[in-house]
Amino acid sequence: MKAIRVHEFGGPEVLRLEEVEAPKPGAHQVVVRVVAVGVNPVEAYMRAGMYPRKPELPYTPGADGAGLVEACGADVKRVRAGDRVYLAGSLTGTYAERALCQEMQVHPLPDAISFQQGAALGVPYATAYRALFDRAQARPSETVLIHGASGGVGTAAVQLARAAGMTVVGTGGTEEGRKLVAEQGAQHVLDHRSADYLEQLLTLTEGRGVDVIIEMLANVNLNRDLGVLAVHGRVVVVGSRGTVEIDPRLTMGRDADIRGMTLFNATEADLRRIHAALVAGLENNTLRPVVGRELPLAEAAAAHEAVMQSGAYGKIVLLTDKE
Ligand code: NAP
Known about the structure:
By secondary structure, this protein is α/β, with parallel strands linked by helices. It folds into two domains: 2-121 and 289-319, Medium-chain alcohol dehydrogenases, catalytic domain (Quinone Oxidoreductase, Chain A, domain 1); 124-264, NAD(P)-binding Rossmann-like Domain (Rossmann fold). It has helices at 41-47, 115-118, 122-135, 152-163, 175-183, 197-204, 218-227, 249-252, 268-283, 300-307, and strands at 2-6, 15-19, 29-38, 64-72, 84-88, 98-102, 106-108, 143-147, 167-172, 188-191, 210-215, 229-237, 257-260, 291-296, 315-319. The strands form three sheets. Strands 3, 4, 5, 6, 7, 14 and 15 form a seven-stranded mixed sheet that branches. Strands 10-9-8-11-12-13 form a six-stranded parallel sheet, with helices on both faces. Strands 1-2 form a two-stranded antiparallel sheet. Strand 9, helix 5 (175-183) and strand 10 (188-191) form a beta-alpha-beta unit. The mean pLDDT is 98. The protein binds NADP nicotinamide-adenine-dinucleotide phosphate (NAP). NADP nicotinamide-adenine-dinucleotide phosphate binds next to helix 1, helix 3, helix 4, strand 9 and helix 7. The site of NADP nicotinamide-adenine-dinucleotide phosphate has 33 residues, from helix 1, helix 3, helix 4, strand 9 and helix 7.
């Protein structure tokens, strides 16, 4: 089978399409024929060798994907050969025609959701869910700023927050991206490249500020976030690409919290709960993953370049059967 392999850390060009042996399932394992692969920024950081977690070389990148169950180990109970599934993690990497998974890493994909959409679920939706509900403890009727709402995690967070009865403000850096954010259900959409958008946010909330901020670029925004938080407000740092200076005094009068988060800290029980909620959202039509760009698996390098550029529009996916 074909798979993307990384033999050395470096630029996108180290992603090479190679022929490798197809995996076979152990007792509690599942082999999935991957149709679509989700591309996440973290895979670009790892490939560059700049992420705290360094995979052992050589490796196949990727945690997300969707496809059909091809083979199951003797003790697998949750899925059968032929089932449509999405992957949230794998043992062998998902940038490949087949992926070997633990039984708990595969989840049912409803018929109404395409494989491309299924590939947009694992990291982005689980991250958005964990950030909103587990870390921020966001509740219905609260106002939530999704700071960077046009990409994979942001579109997911807008849908989840809106479905849970929150007032959602989303930001995007392009007109196309902001239109997309509005389509996902955000009641208010702002331009994070404009000079006065946080003043607009304060006007929108009648000076009160927002209860929760889901922050995609904390190194740019964290200090200003603290200035637009309501009393008892929480900022969850989901993404950050550098350092930032903050004025701690801004947290004091608000009893404000800054909470970090990484999906890697979710336990097995957390992931079981999170994916049960996500599957329910897919079934009841409140969650509709947005795929902005599709590329052949062989063009993984171009996908890694694109995922690090601004102008996000939902998710970038790789297709295993596209030339
Ligand atoms: P993505 O699809 O590339 O989206 C990036 C988002 O950041 C876009 O909405 C982009 O908006 C926005 N952005 C750019 N400049 C911004 C600014 N000045 N202020 C606010 N937002 C800005 O990436 P993603 O998959 O959604 O991931 C988002 C971030 O979270 C990445 O840094 C990723 O590494 C991180 N992440 C963390 C975890 C975790 O476990 N903590 C999990 C998944 C992702 P425009 O392009 O429209 O400007």
